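Hi W., the magnesium ion complex you wanted:
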Amino acid sequence: MQKQLLVLTFLMVCTGFATAQKMSSRDSLAATLEVWVNVPVVTPGVNNAEAPSDATILYNGNGLGAFQKRDGSPAGWKIDADGAITDIKGAGDLITKEAFGSCQLHIEFREPAEVKSSGQGRGNSGVYIMGKYEIQVLDSYNNPTYSNGQAGAVYKQHVPLVNASRKPGEWQSYDIIFTAPLFKENGDLESPARVTIIHNGVLIQNNVTILGPTDWIRKPKYVKHASKLPLMLQDHGDDGNPISYRNIWIRNL
Ligand code: MG
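Structure:
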């Protein structure tokens, strides 16, 4: 009886040892798939619209110092009493002093409460990433126009998946994730730009491939450019377009 007990104990110890061995070899196999790198810690804003700690603030109500005109002179848009910046007809595009490549951009815009025009004439502006790739800004609330030119379109290239526009006069947002194009030494395209856009919390462009700089009359065609270029906000230059912006921040990727 005592001998049987001894054998049983021995077997139990062996089984336990084998299980431990098995576990440890499984653990080490699993560990081969683990990646340990230093992931920077970023403090997010208290809501998704607030800039995280590593963002470059382009505008948060404290003046237009991050922007200039095309000729390098001070930006000509006006700052409203509520802290928004509003386009003045003919004031020229707003161009960042700093250049950006692949990025995450948050921007809020408000279409004029008073509707003055229609189609492309109604609240037309644009977020030109790298100054070349336009994400259309337009009052697309009950405002028919060509689909690849409505709000959230990659202009004349990609129709938004849905129309998530709010009413004129209400604040809206774009959250844009942009991958810059890469060029070979000889100027050939290595990989095209891509973009994902969330409009008012709704996915409207899902990692679409940009075919080249956006243009209203020419087909897109890539021409080698710098890896970082200024961001541009369009002054469409006509009557129905006193577009306003606020809370603009960008993170280099
Ligand atoms: Mg536009």
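Residues 2-31 form the longest helix (30 residues).

W.
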